[in-house]
Design goal:
Immunoglobulin-like; 1 helix; rod-shaped
Length: 167
């Protein structure tokens, strides 16, 4: 009987030690934190809501956004001297930080009878998750140029931007 008691006590002590070891391992596992936190910034703007004012279906005019949402390309028809076509667009911040516009790089047509005007976007801040005000690009057939543009006019504009350092 004495031997059985010793055996039971030994088993009880081993069970208590095993449970204690398991509890200790669980607690230290829960309380131990390790790793590296990486916070990445994503600066990304897209041109959105692009349109040609007065465009009708089948009129040969087009507007599209390419270059991962950064370039606006359009073709407009200038039917008469003095005619102006307006292309409207907005800029949306889909990044994780505020962005500041630096410029609008353009490939203006070389035709002397065509005048293209676009907004200065330098310094405009577009807040994360927001869409800018509407901007316009105007393409005009100059009456005083004395020549006629060669049919339709194709033009592109690319937004240039960086992280807004003030945020």
């Amino acid at each position: 009987m004495k031997e059985k008691k010793k055996l039971y006590i030994t088993i009880a002590i081993l069970v208590i030690l095993l449970i204690s070891a398991l509890v200790y391992a669980a607690v230290t596992g829960i309380l131990t934190f390790s790793g590296i936190a990486v916070i990445s910034k994503n600066v990304d703007l897209n041109i959105v809501d692009e349109s040609i004012v007065g465009k009708t279906s089948g009129d040969g005019q087009s507007v599209s956004v390419t270059n991962s949402g950064h370039t606006l390309t359009f073709t407009v028809n200038l039917e008469n001297p003095g005619v102006t076509k307006t292309i409207n667009f907005k800029i949306q911040n889909i990044g994780s930080v505020d962005a500041k516009l630096a410029s609008l790089s353009t490939t203006a047509p070389s035709d002397a009878a065509v005048d293209v005007t676009w907004p200065s976007l330098n310094g405009v801040v577009v807040t994360t998750g927001e869409t800018s005000s509407e901007y316009s690009i105007d393409v005009t057939w100059l009456t005083e140029a004395g020549s006629e543009p060669a049919g339709s006019v194709t033009f592109s504009a690319t937004i240039n931007y960086a992280e807004d350092a003030a945020t």
